[in-house]
Write a structure and sequence with these properties.
The protein folds into two domains: 1-41, no CATH class; 46-105, no CATH class. It has five helices and no strands. It has helices at residues 15-21, 23-39, 41-44, 47-72, 80-97.
Length: 105
């Protein structure tokens, strides 16, 4: 049961509220970025490092976009792991069974 605050009253900010609201995760990410920036200013914001981070997260981002559409339409099926495993397995089997041959002229 949630308590509804009366109009004009300020909500008390407690450690429990911060943890439940997701604010703690954003604070940890901000502290990590700040710490990495201070520790190695030229390395963290370098173009190769940013490209590496974005390349590593693109697959997760695409899956999140697809799942967002599923959740918004009401079909709450979050079986991403099994679908990703099946597609990876089928890709490996098809690549192994049907190798790509190149012609050299």
């Amino acid at each position: 049961m949630t308590a509804i605050a009366a109009p004009g009253r300020r909500r008390r900010v407690t450690v429990g509220w911060i943890a439940r609201s997701g604010l703690a995760a954003w604070a940890i990410v901000a502290l990590l970025v700040l710490g990495l920036t201070v520790a190695k200013p030229a390395g963290f914001w370098a173009a190769p490092n940013l490209a590496n981070v974005l390349t590593a997260t693109v697959v997760l981002g695409l899956v999140a976009l697809g799942q967002n559409l599923v959740v918004l339409t009401g079909g709450i099926d979050l079986a991403v792991g099994s679908t990703a495993t099946l597609s990876g397995l089928l890709t490996a089997v098809l690549i192994d069974g049907y190798p790509i041959r190149t012609r050299c002229r």
